[in-house]
Amino acid sequence: MLQATIKGFESALSVLTPKPNGTQLRSIKATSAPKVDAQGEPVADWIPADKYTLVKALQSGAEASTSLTASATTGRIFVVKKFSAYYDEWTEDGKVQAHGPLPNEAAVLLEKITPHESILNVLGADFVCIYKGMHCNLYTDFCDAGDLAAQISHTHKQRGIAPEVFILHLFVSLADAIAYIHTGIIWDAGDKRHRQISDHQGYLHGDVKPGNTFLQWTKDQPLPRVVLGDLGMSQEESKARGIFGTRVFFAPEMQAAYEKSRSPPDARMEMRKTLGVTTQKSDVYALAQTIIDAMTYDLHEIGADPYTEPVTHDDRKGWQGVFLPKSFEVVALKGALQRCLVADPAKRCNLYEYSADGLQGTIGVLRAERDRKLEEAENIPREFWKTPREVVEVDDEFLVVPDKSEEFQAVGKDDGEMLR
User: Do 288 and 236 fall into the same domain?
Assistant: First the structure.
C-alpha cells in the first residue's frame, strides 16, 4: 500500500483530523457492515475515525475544495471533497452542535440512491468542527486515470482520434449510470437483463459533461472503468426548478429558457421558480454532447438538426449533423447520438425503455459491440492515455512510468478533416 507523508501541511491536516482540544469529528454515514453496491459487490473500506494525510490539493471551487488524502491506517488513497456546513452555537463544554442538512451531493449519494458501478463510489461523510467553524468532508474513491476532460485534451494535443471501442465504452457506461439515476434500472451482466431497484426515486443529474466523468483503472480490464460523478446539482425531477448545469452542455429547451430569462430583470427570478425546464431529457442531450466532444473535441450546435448531413464546422456554434470518424464501424452509434440530440424534448429518446421512445435496444447493440471489440482495447498504445495504468510515487509526486511500446498513431488521412 502506498504510504504518503508530505511535510509542511500541518495546518491543512488539522482540517482532516480530529483535534483533542474540544474539536469534534462526527461521523454521518459510518457503517459497521461491509458496504455493497446495487449488484451486491463489496465496495472499498472506509474508516470514519481514521486520520488522513494530505497528499495533494486538486482543485478549489465556489462550493467545495477537493484533495487527495491517504489513510494513516491502510495507506489507501481517497478523494475528500470539503463543503462549508452550518453550525448552531458553542455549548458550555466547548463543542459544536451541527445543524443544517448534508450538502446536496452527499445527501443524494448517501441517502437517496444506492451505489452503482458506473457512478462514483462514495464511502462516507463527516462533519468537522474547527476554530468555531464547520465543514463537511465527503470521501470517495480515487479515480486514478483522471477525468474525461483531461483525457480529451490529451488526445487532442496528440492530434489523435479516440479508439472506437473506448467511445462505445463511454456511451454504454454513462448511459447505464444516467438510466439508473433516472429510473433505478440496472444491467445485470450475468443474466443479460435489466433489474429494477425497488422504491427508487427518479432524479436527474443536472450536469453531465466530460469534467464530471471519471476514469479508474481496474484489475485485468483493458479499458478504465467509467464513472459519473459530481451530483451536486442533482434534483428529483418532479421538484426540479429553473435551469442548472454547464451552459455549453445545455439542451435546446434550457438554452431557450436562459435567453428568455436575460430580460426583463425579474425574468430570471421567475425562471428559477419554474418547474420542468431542466428534465431527464436534458441529461440525455448532455450525454450525447459528451460523446461528441470525446470524438471530435467539440460540440454539436445546440438545437441543430442531428439528422442533416454533417456540414463545415463552425467555430462559434459547433458541429451541424453528427460527424463520426470514418474509421468507426458501428453504425448504431450515429443513430443513438442523433436520437439523443433531437431538439424537441418531447421527441427526444429516454435511456430506460425498449420502446420506440427509448434507447435501451440500441444501447444493447452498443454494449455487444463494445464487448466484441475488447481485444482491440488491449492494443491501445499507452501513449493514448493521459494517465496510463502504471503509476508510482517518487519524491512525493505521482509519476507515470513509461514502457516501450509502438508509437501512438495520431490519425489516419481519412479522419484528418475532423481536426482543426
Answer: yes
Residue 335 falls inside a structural domain: yes
Its domain, for residue 170, covers: 148-377
The answer to whether residue 220 sits within a structural domain is yes
Give 283-304 pLDDT, tens digit per residue: 999 999 999 999 988 899 999 9
Grouping H, G, I as helix, E, B as strand and the rest as coil, residue 272 is helix
pLDDT digits (tens, 9 = 90+) for 33-55: 344 556 666 544 677 767 888 88
In the chain, the number of structural domains is: 2
pLDDT tens digits, one per residue of 225-235: 999 999 999 99
The last residue of a domain, from among 141, 166, 193:
141
Chain center to CA of 120: 7
Decide: 36 and 59 in contact? Cβ < 8 Å. Answer: no
Buried b or exposed e, range 177-200, using 16+ CB within 10 angstroms: bbbbbbbbbbbeeeeeebeeeeeb
Does 18 have pLDDT greater than 50?
Answer: no
> d(Cα 282, Cα 344) in Å, to the nearest integer?
11
Rounded-to-integer distance, Cα 136 and Cα 138, Å: 7
Instruction: Provide the β-strand partners of residue 274.
Output: none
- One-letter amino acid of 83: F
Q: How far apart are CA 364 and CA 381, in angstroms?
A: 27
Burial of residue 153 (CB within 10 Å: 0-12, 13-18, 19+) is middle
Same domain, 257 and 119: no
**Residue type at position 328:** F
> Is 56 strand, coil or helix?
strand
Query: Tell me, what CATH number does 217's domain have?
Result: 1.10.510.10
Instruction: Say if CB 127 and CB 28 are below 8 A apart.
Output: yes
Cα angle 155, 159, 165 (rounded to 5 degrees) comes to: 50
pLDDT tens-digit readout, 66-93: 999 888 877 888 899 998 876 555 555 5
Contact criterion met (CB below 8 Å) for 271 and 257: yes
Are 130 and 180 in a shared domain? no
398 domain residue, yes or no: no
Confidence at residue 313, expressed as pLDDT on a 0 to 100 scale: 58
Is residue 181 within 8 A of residue 203, CB to CB? The reply is yes
Q: Let me know whether 325 and 370 are in one domain.
A: yes
Q: Is residue 402 included in any domain, yes or no?
A: no
36: domain CATH number?
A: 3.30.200.20
